[in-house]
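go over this:
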Amino acid sequence: MTAAIKLSDYLNEPLIFTQKRYSSNKELFTEVSTVAFDKGYVREDFLERVKQREETFPTGIQLEDFGVAIPHTDAECVHKEFVAIITNAEPVAFKSMEDLDQMVAANIVFVLGLNQPHAQLDMLQSLMKLLQNPEVLSQLLVAETTEQLLTIVKNNNL
């Protein structure tokens, strides 16, 4: 039996964005993709592919108190695995995963850059546990800095 995937193992400071303001999810994707590409995590086509996949398979999830999105794309565009976390000072609109006619105002976005097929499912399961914990999500949302956000993730053994 393999050890559970931990979110903290996939976090990298340059790919944590706290208290951001974006006019659209495309603007959010552009910033994350630019940093990921500059750091050597992804191929150049990552941005286009993540935008296309989000259009075809939306990832917005409406929780009781929060909106979340978990965009991701094909494994072959990822050189080095990561999970980018973006907390939004003002929610960003994503189409709902459950109802394409509904929009979700995403307070937190997890952009998955995974290149192992099993890792994607394991990471989604790990994130689903986190999404069922409104207390931790609240803490993540109010984190002002990358360091605070990383501490919350580590303190909660995520």
